[in-house]
Amino acid sequence: MSVEVGKQVEDFTLPNQDGEKVSLSNFRGKHVVLYFYPKDMTPGCTTEACDFRDNHESFGELDAVIIGVSPDPADRHQKFIDKHDLPFLLLADEEHQVAEQFDVWKLKKNFGKEYYGIERSTFIIDKEGVLQKEYRKVKVEGHVEEALGFIRENLQ
Question: Is 50 among the residues known to form the active site?
């Protein structure tokens, strides 16, 4: 089961940084920028989170919410938010069920070792819960501006 552009995204529920359950359907009526990232506190993930933070107001003006998802536990998410003053939700997908739903849980190689982890990806879901755009194998630099531009040009 994977998501497909132009199709309704199946609802899911995960705990946020406070341990509260959050469902995708809670955001019906707003655009959702759902971004998957490998690990809190790592250089690329910190840069990406801070780019989203720095553009948070611009997304808000377009009626869009930002939600980050990684396999890290809720308490680590809270430390990440506190350290970098992140104004959006981070969801803990410790069992990688949502990562698998979005087909971003992949076999990766690093320094000759193979392991499963998140392939950095972003999904833009419209106000009715339909997937409008997917960015897979994201390169951090310029990505947030690209996602913002897509919403501005296609979902207003």
Answer: no
